[in-house]
Amino acid sequence: MTSETTSSTDALPRIVPQRGMPEQVRIYEVGPRDGLQAEAVRVPTAVKAEFVRRLVEAGLTTIEVTSFVSPRWIPQLDDAHEVLTAVGPLDGIRLPVLVPNERGLERALAAGAREIAVFASATESFAKNNLARDMAGVLAMFEPVVRRARAAGLPVRGYVSMCFGDPWEGDVEPRKVASVARGLLDMGCTSLSLGDTIGTGTPGHVLELLDTVRGAGIPLERTALHFHDTYGQALANVHAALTAGVTEFDSSAGGIGGCPYARSATGNLATEDLVWMLRGLGIHTGVDLNALAATSRWMAHHLGRPSPSRVVTALA
Ligand code: MG
Predict the structure, then answer these.
(1) Are 183 and 118 in contact (CB under 8 A)?
(2) Residues with catalytic annotation?
(3) What is the mean pLDDT of the chain?
(4) Where is the Pyruvate carboxyltransferase domain (predicted)?
C-alpha cells in the first residue's frame, strides 16, 4: 500500500465519447417495482418511500414506483396506494405505476397516479402462464385500461415481455414482437418497453429486432429496451441498441429483482452498471453514481443480501 492509493468511492470511468452515440439517455428506473416485486423479503412501506426519495436525490427522474396488481398475486407490493401517496407528486419527476386491469387503474388514479404502464407478451406461452389469457385476450384486457387512462390525460407505457427468448417456446421471432408492439401503439400506448425477460438476447439479435420493429413503423424514439443480465449480456445489448438510436433503457438500482422464469437469480440490469458505461461514453444521464450506489447498499441491508451490481460492489 502506498500513500497514493485513492479512495475507491472517488473512482469514475475516464470519459471517451464514441461517434454515433446519443448525447443523452433516459434511465427508466424499475427498482421499486420490478426489483422489489421479485425479492423474497417484503420491505416496509416507509423504506419503499425512502427508497424512491433517495433515487430522486441521486438524480433519477423517471421511477416506476409500484404496481396496482392484486395483493394476492404480489404481496410484496400490497401497499401500492400508501407508497405512491407518500412520495408523489413531485415536480419534474415522473412516477409511473404498473396497472394490470381496470380495477388496478381505478386504484392507481385514486392514489394520484399521473402515468401508468401495462404489460403484454410477445409469446402465447408467457401470456397463458403469466396472465392466464391468450395474446389477443391480453390486448383485449388492456384496451379499456389504455383508453380510460388516455382519456384521463395519462401517458401509458406498454411493456412487451419475452421479446428475445421464452422459457417455454425458446427463440422468439422479431416479427411477433413487432406485431404486439404495433398493437399496443394502435391501442393508444404512448411509449413501449421491449423486454428480454429471460436475458438470452445478444447484440446481433438486438439489432435484428430493432430493424424489424422500425420496419413495422414503430418509432425508436418511443421505444425503450429492458435487459436482464442473466447470461451477462445486458450491457453489450445496451451498447448495440445505442448504436441503433435507442435512448431509453430500463434498469434497477443495485440490480435488485430476479426473474422467476429464468434459471439464475440474476435479473435486472443494475442502474449503476448502466450509468458507469454511459458515463464512460460521455452520455449524460443526470445520475450521481456514488449517491446511487450508497442507496443500493442501504437497500441491500434491508433485503438481507448483497447487491448483485458489479459497480456497487466495486465502489464499496
Ligand atoms: Mg425486469
Answers:
(1) no
(2) 259
(3) 92
(4) 25-293
Report the C-alpha gap between 243 and 241 in whole angstroms: 5
Q: How far is the CA of 149 from the centre of ligand 1 (A)?
A: 23
Name the residue ranges covered by the structural domains of the chain.
26-315
Q: In this predicted model, what pLDDT tens digit does every residue of 241-258 receive, in sequence order?
A: 999 999 999 999 999 987
Contacts of 261 (CB under 8 A, 6+ apart): 126, 130, 167, 197, 198
Within 10 Å of residue 135's Cβ, how many Cβ atoms? 21
| CA 261 – ligand 1 centroid, Å | 11
Distance 1 CA to ligand 1 centre (A): 41
Write the pLDDT tens digit of every residue in 47-87: 999 999 999 999 999 999 999 998 888 888 999 999 999 99
Q: Residue 7: its pLDDT value, please?
A: 46
Q: Say which residue, 64 or 139, is predicted with more confidence.
A: 64
Angstrom distance (rounded) from CA 151 to CA 181 = 21
221: how many CB neighbours lie within 10 A of its CB?
A: 10
- The domain 26-315 having CATH identifier 3.40.50.300: the answer here is no
